[in-house]
Design a protein that fits this description.
The structure is a single chain. This protein is of the alpha+beta class. It has one domain: HIT-like (HIT family, subunit A, 2-Layer Sandwich). Helices cover 30% and strands 17% of the residues. It contains three helices and five strands, in the order αβββαββα. Strands 1-2-3-5-4 form a five-stranded antiparallel beta sheet, covered by helices on one side. The longest helix has 22 residues. The chain is globular, with a radius of gyration of 17 Å. Bound molecules: adenosine monophosphate (AMP) and zinc ion. Zinc ion binds next to helix 1.
């Protein structure tokens, strides 16, 4: 994908056309507070270049984003005295991604916050046989 996309709200933040509460910036990555936080300190980490999903990211950019998540997660937790954090990507529209520019969420978690684990996002679990699990594992290995 191109470096910037005019109609993308996160590209406009990168360009400085929309304000943000920036908490980290380098040549390739920007992190800023979510404007509609799920918890105090809710932070978004994005590549500066426009890419829609994790699968669209060049490997080096993916590494840059993860490095920033790695460094920022304990910093965010410390800043708001959190007990932990949920770190997640809504990856693709069907997965709930509303802004089509890759972003990792760091959501601080507190012992009494009433939140739940990522597993609670899903309803009933599929009943997969050993053969089906073997086939899926092989397909992932082949596709990578
Ligand atoms: P997602 O549903 O994973 O695409 O999350 C998009 C996130 O972007 C939401 O948590 C929004 O609150 C957040 N967001 C949208 N616009 C802005 C903005 N201008 N500045 C900061 N965060 C934003
Ligand atoms: Zn963008």
């Amino acid at each position: 994908m191109s470096e910037q996309q005019d109609d993308c709200i996160f590209c406009q933040i990168v360009a400085g056309d929309i304000p943000s509460r920036t908490v980290y910036e380098d040549d390739d990555v920007l992190a800023f507070l979510d404007a509609n936080p799920l918890a105090p300190g809710h932070t978004l980490v994005i590549p500066k270049a426009h890419h829609e999903t994790l699968g669209d990211l060049p490997g080096d950019v993916g590494s840059d984003v993860f490095a920033a998540l790695h460094d920022l997660t304990p910093a965010v937790e410390a800043a708001v005295d959190a007990d932990g954090s949920t770190v997640a990507f809504n990856n693709g529209e069907e997965a709930g991604q509303e802004v089509p520019h890759v972003h990792g969420h760091i959501v601080p978690r507190f012992a009494d916050d009433g939140g739940r684990p990522i597993h609670s996002l899903f309803g009933s679990r599929p009943d997969l046989s050993d053969d089906e699990l073997d086939d899926i594992a092989a397909a992932i290995e082949d596709a990578n």
